[in-house]
Amino acid sequence: MKKILVSTALLAGVLSYAGGFRVSLQGVKQLAMAHTSAHAEDASVAFFNPAGMSFIPSKLSIVAGGFGASNKVTFQNLNTLNSTETDNPMGTPIYAAITYKPMDKLSVGFSFSTPFGSTIQYPYDWEGREMVQKLELKSFYFQPMVSYKMADWMSFGVSYIYARGKVNWDKAVTQFGGTVNINDEKASGHGYGFGFYFRPDPKFDVSIAYRSPVDMKAKKGTATFTVPAQNTVNTLLGLNAAGQDGFTATLPLVSEYTIGMTYKVTPKWLISADFNYHGWERYSKLTLDFANAPIGNQTDPTILVSPKNFRNSKTVRLGTQYAFSNMIFGRLGAYYDESPYSDDNFIPETPSFDSFVLTGGLGFKLNKFGVDVAGGYVMPQSRDVNNKTLGFYGQAKAKAFYFGLGLSYNAF
């Protein structure tokens, strides 16, 4: 029974990175330029660096947008040559932000985003069904923030992060010929962010930002077993009449450091670059405390500890924009995203790959209104899976693409 539920300890990976990696979809304009951050043209800068609000040219700025995200993962067992492909529905992350300058040097704002969220679905009878059959994740970030312009060329900003999360996970319990559903709809956590934004020259912007770790606390999680011999399993594991047991866990979301720069080569042409560093090293293990079920691996049989062995990861981004006119803008970008774990720690719940991503898009300005469209094509590198802890071996491949539509309004 212990083997069945070891993979429930992967909740933290799911709640931290949708699909096992950071899905950069918090601004349509930013995505078109490789999701670079040093762009203080409207309220979309708020998620990336609260200090950027001070350099928005409008006193009141409002943005909103959404994306479609499609991804598929293929796993092949090299011994049997059996191949399994996920059938994931389209993900639809959204974002919105508003900023306002009550005084010349002071800016306030609010950002709402869904930075982590996806669904991964395997055939219910596939060989890894005891690890995952279907996994749905939703997360929401609410960030009030403030920025102060310390000089004409420099500002400092801070934000408070309130995060909410929901996970719904189906897995097989082959020992009893049934399934278990892992569910928590009220996981929450708190964090903060701060940053500096510099414009030492009208042609040159520099953004330096930090987003803290967020410990998502699952206080009322529920594990529900559905098996033919329900009464026997209920008694064996100390479940209630509905086949349920509760659990608690602290699910770590990691820190992120970002340095971004934008340089206007000409009045019509700009180039942007970003470097992101993710502090995944703190995710070395996860502890789950079940209310009654004796499925742990510690002195207390209700406590289950699972090693994770994640490592810090980096992302390098390069984007560009060219103004064809005062109303039409073309954008291109590319970035390289590292996986936060090795082949020895690959997990099908959060499949992660070293990936090259190509992006592009168009922007349209209509007086105070802006409309942006963008797309991204992901080229993940295949992985030789060798997870001895889970007994999971083979080769994994993936493919993914994104598209988005964003609206902006710089009122006055």
Distance between the termini: 62 Å
Low-confidence stretches: 1-21
Number of extended strands: 21
Shape: elongated
From the structure provided, what is the oligomeric state, counting identical versus distinct chains?
single chain
Strand order of the largest sheet: 1-3-4-6-7-8-9-12-13-16-17-18-19-21
- Tell me the major beta sheet: 14 strands, antiparallel, barrel
> What's the helix count?
5
Radius of gyration: 23 Å
Estimated share of beta-strand residues: over 45%
Please provide the ordered H/E string of secondary-structure elements.
HHHHEEEEEEEEEEHEEEEEEEEEEE
* Helix amount: under 10%
Query: If you average the pLDDT, what whole number results?
Result: 89
Structural class: mainly beta
Keywords: Cell outer membrane, Membrane, Signal, Transmembrane, Transmembrane beta strand
InterPro entries: OMPP1/FadL/TodX
Family: Belongs to the OmpP1/FadL family.
Subcellular location: Cell outer membrane
Structure description:
It holds the Pfam family Toluene_X. Keywords: Cell outer membrane, Membrane, Signal, Transmembrane, Transmembrane beta strand. This is Outer membrane protein transport protein. Belongs to the OmpP1/FadL family. It is found in: Cell outer membrane. It is a single chain. The termini are far apart. This protein is mostly beta strands and 412 residues long. The protein is elongated and about 70 Å long. The protein has a 14-stranded antiparallel beta barrel with strand order 1-3-4-6-7-8-9-12-13-16-17-18-19-21. A hairpin with a 4-residue loop joins strand 7 and strand 8.
